[in-house]
Fold:
Amino acid sequence: MCLGIPGKVTEIYEQQGITMGKVDFGGIQKEICLAYVPEIEVGEYTIVHVGFAITRLDEESAMETLALIDELGILEEELGVPDEVSD
Amino acid sequence: MSPMKYLTEFRDPEKARILFDEIANITTRPWAIMETCGGQTHSIIRNGIDQLLPDKIELIHGPGCPVCVTSLEMIDRALAIAAEPGVIFCSFGDMLRVPGSGKDLFTIKSEGGDVRIVYSPLDAVRMAQQNPDRQVVFFGIGFETTAPANAMAVHQAKQLGLANFSMLVSHVLVPPAIEAIMQSPTNRVQGFLAAGHVCSVMGTWQYEPLAERYNVPIVITGFEPLDILDGIRRCVIQLEAGRTEVDNAYARAVQEKGNLPAQQLLAEVFVPADRKWRGIGQIPQSGWRLSDAYAEFDAERRFDVGGIVTQESAVCRSGDVLRGQIKPHECPAFGKECTPRSPLGATMVSSEGACAAYYQYGRFATLEQA
Amino acid sequence: MSDLDFEGWTCPLPLRDHPNIILGHGGGGKLSAELVEHLFLPAFQNEHLASLGDSTVLDLGGQRLAFSTDSFVVQPLFFPGGSIGDLAVHGTVNDVAMSGAQPLYLSAGFIVEEGLPLATLGGIVTRMGEAARAAGVMLVTGDTKVVDRGHGDGVYINTSGLGLIPEGVHVAAHRASPGDAVLVSGTLGDHGMAVMSVREGLEFETVIESDSAPLNGLVADLLAAVPDVHTLRDPTRGGVASALNEIARAAGVGILLEERHLPVKPAVQAACELLGMDPLYVANEGKLIAILPGEHADAALAAMQAHPLGSDARLIGHVTEAHPGILAVRTAFGATRVVDMQVGEQLPRIC
Structure:
């Protein structure tokens, strides 16, 4: 339901009484409303939906998820799971 | 390949292969899992994830696309407002092609209506400031993820004293829909992938009572291929073990409490309301409308379209498709009266709807066999 | 919830064909194709139209002539990397070149809105002149009409072009054959996203520039290296997906692309992510698709990559006997999905 894209906050400012900012998405910048992530700091990542930052992206959790998948891979290898997918 | 941080890493084919293998390893029985969100469905279809899962795992595409589930009646109200002289009608892009009773917003535009696509609801507020002699109406659709944006737009219009801004609100909520699905006597869904971004806003706590009451595992899941695969993996682990818990597979974006500042403004701007869902019918307390404090910004009142009532006529079986009762090609209208070009049901309207996806892939599979 | 009738979940009546022209009829997708098929072809019917290529090939006194026309209504008139003026030259030069022809002469028709600053029109035609000289073509005839204020977005331009097809060159959509390689001359979606970045309501800051460029030089180099090019197409409106769907249908073949081989600039990819769009459907104005026998793919690629406008050329897929009329993509995970033509133009999604 909800296209949400991670981006990096590069600027924070007030506009018409609302916290706004610039967010960089892999090389393109867009003005985004930051009112719902008051704790966010420049350099941190957020997830943006229809021009609004809806949450701070927790970088540590992101790394944990990826590390967990790698661990599964190592386990599979040790258990000798047949690799059916070929390129 | 995109170097977008926290996006690219979650599309890694090597890591995906690990998860596909793992899911195949842990699945011993057939399971029907519903991904609730249209964004998840899009990702599944776009990457062909459903084709690579074990046959025992069936993904049922849920009613989680806000564009598809917006009721016919609400679209007819939107069309009536957009056709009013002097109105600038603003909408998210994907809403313009969704048909009401006889027309869509593109048709209204071709007949002289001033219909504009905006990226953010705040763009519509800005448009109202720039056009003080015009009535600017924003079509406020969406689930809980979009609601904070729409709430902020109305809130800002009030702060700025914009008398020429209003919103046609058609907000829908996930938990009542999950409840409606689980209460259906013919329900087949055994586990849910809950919508990650909805939970970014609302938190995970809302789902605890649902998992308990209906004995169903609910895994909060993201949208990239690795997120979806990890969500399925965690759901299967619970199903195989007979557990029915709420599990968060999207920890980088979802906290238990959700986004408190957003919830605070939502509580001020919106109140729960009954809502009709396209192809499903009315579900009690399954949506939001503007609270009394913001009633002056209600486009339904301002344009007196509340009297427009549209019955959804029984032609296709997208309801059965949505609940996983039948496969799209088992509907008698599929591919005949009903195609992506002239859709009958919500599931054919959206390009990621189950019927549209089947239409595309079915065409391919049939031809490959031939 | 006892009043909920689940067995009676119902659906709306279908949306019938639009009685009026809607924007999607100009979007290069299914609506455009239907308009051509049901309205224009029956009215104009003749054997030259039937090929439905970017340009028509005419036999005139023993010479084969490529003839094409195109109209330009882009908003805004100036965008990152170009303007409506150079676009109007490049668009028609490229349409003519896609028959394998060397474009020679262009016409230009201007529909100007009352009130347009002369300096604006001056800036546009100056760029047109420069673009024509750079492409090696001459603007040899033209026309100007002015419409009431409010009846046009500043200026619309139509250009038509003529070119000569060299001996031995036979480029046409229907020649795409199983076993052929599908090549693209560079990154996808640059033009569409450059224009999108300055469109009201969707603006974003970016370094993306339109790829608007004349492709006749690239075509000449390609044909010199591989004379037996089967099909050329410049994937403008509707993008690579629409162009390849049209070719698959015209030739009665299937086309299979490899998703991981599709060249997309990171910033274009990012803009597509943000707006929920697919680069396969986004417009290009300086890229071509070449379909040619598989054994010549390396030579063709080398020739294209040696040209400045083809440095990012890639082999992106192949033509197959399987699934005739259908374009499919093998995803990064090894699954296959059908890539159909869009109904109208691609819209930003929230979902």
Q: What stands out?
A: The domain at 67-173+258-302 of chain B is CATH 3.40.50.11740 (Rossmann fold).
